[in-house]
Each structure stands twice: as C-alpha cells, then as structure tokens.
C-alpha cells in the first residue's frame, strides 16, 4: 500500500543539489494508517520495532545486577547509570563516561536482554529508511534507474538495486521523517535541511523521537 492522499514532494540529497544528473525522488507524506502499516511491517516482519529508553535502561540495570553480583563496583555503576539517566553525561566525569561505555560493551557481548535490544535498534536503523522508501516513494528520476512497483504495489527490488546506496538511504530517511510531520510542519519544510538528508546515525543508547521516548536510530528526527 502506497501513500496517495497528498501531493508528492521532490527530494534530492543535499550533496547532489545543483548536479544536472542528480536523482530526484518523489516522496508522498504518509497518512496515519499508512504510517502505522509501515511500523507494523518493521515490527512484525523484520523484528525492527521501536526500542524505548525504559526497555534499554531495564536491560542495562538487570545486566549489571546479575553479572556484577557480589562485585564492589556494582553499586557505583548503578549510581552512574541513574545519574546519566536523570542528568545526562554533563554530570559525569570523563572517567565515568568511559566506565559506562565499557559496561555497555560488556553487556552487548554477555547479556542477552541488552544484546537483543541493540540488535533490534540496528535492524531498525538499517531497514526503516528502505521500508519507508518502498511505501512512500511514487517516482524516481535518475540515470540508469527505471521506476517500477512490485506485486505488492511498493517500489520494486530491481529499482532499489539500481540506486546509489547512500542516496537511497538519504531519500528513505526523508520519507520516514515526512511520515511523522504534521500538516503545519509540511508547510514549513518544503525544502528539507541538509542535516536530514544523510544516513541516520546515533551515538547514544537513548535518543528520543516525535514518535515517543524511543531509542530507534531511524526516528523522525533524521531519518531513528
């Protein structure tokens, strides 16, 4: 199912603007139902649903409690986790930040609850732009690219394969972002800023998005 209720918006990755051969993606803002269908596919088919900050925090705390049972450092680490959660890294020393980074590294290797959530976040970061592009792209003009739909009515695999990966991700990030814009937001963002044109990245376990207190890396802020 492809969004059809709103006029498509032309999008070109910022670094290709001014290039006569630059790709142009026609992206249609999603309706509420269409956005929910996209999220359902991410969560159901790909196990790439939103990961919320409280879930990640619970996994971190349970890992520290279990793996450091009887260790004298456990209490200090739990205290640092609480400080970081309440006040951010600004209230921590560089040594504290490094310690928590090492704790997360250990949990990612040794604690299934935390490892599974991190893997889910990575799946979402990689897949959300592609799924959004398949749902909400209604046309592509680019050298060597023929726009076609698959049997499901979405952008075909052959079309995706013909695209430059970075340009495809940038367009997918923008399509995902547009799915969470209000009508007023859309009116104020006819041209997306270059900060939203690149692939989504994250340096934190717990960023938030307009879709909720979620740690997904392809949230509406980019794109998690």
Automatic annotation (TrEMBL):
<feature type="compositionally biased region" description="Polar residues">
    <location>
        <begin position="190"/>
        <end position="207"/>
    </location>
</feature>
<protein>
    <submittedName>
        <fullName>Uncharacterized protein</fullName>
    </submittedName>
</protein>
<feature type="compositionally biased region" description="Basic and acidic residues">
    <location>
        <begin position="214"/>
        <end position="224"/>
    </location>
</feature>
<feature type="region of interest" description="Disordered">
    <location>
        <begin position="183"/>
        <end position="224"/>
    </location>
</feature>
């Amino acid at each position: 199912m492809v969004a059809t209720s709103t006029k498509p918006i032309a999008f070109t990755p910022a670094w290709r603007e001014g290039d006569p051969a630059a790709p142009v993606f026609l992206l249609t803002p999603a309706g509420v139902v269409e956005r929910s269908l996209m999220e359902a596919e991410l969560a159901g088919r790909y196990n790439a649903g939103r990961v919320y900050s409280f879930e990640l925090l619970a996994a971190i705390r349970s890992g520290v409690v279990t793996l450091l049972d009887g260790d004298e450092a456990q209490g200090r680490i739990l205290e640092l986790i609480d400080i970081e959660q309440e006040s951010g890294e600004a209230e921590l020393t560089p040594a504290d930040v490094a310690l928590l980074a090492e704790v997360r590294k250990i949990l990612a290797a040794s604690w299934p609850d935390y490892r599974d959530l991190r893997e889910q976040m990575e799946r979402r970061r990689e897949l959300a732009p592609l799924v959004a592009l398949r749902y909400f792209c209604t046309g592509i003009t680019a050298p060597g690219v023929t726009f076609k739909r698959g049997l499901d009515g979405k952008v075909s695999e052959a079309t995706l394969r013909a695209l430059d990966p970075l340009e495809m991700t940038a367009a997918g990030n923008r399509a995902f972002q547009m799915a969470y814009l209000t009508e007023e937001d859309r009116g104020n963002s006819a041209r997306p800023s270059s900060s939203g044109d690149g692939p989504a990245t994250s340096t934190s376990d717990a960023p938030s998005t307009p879709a909720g207190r979620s740690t997904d890396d392809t949230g509406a802020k980019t794109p998690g």
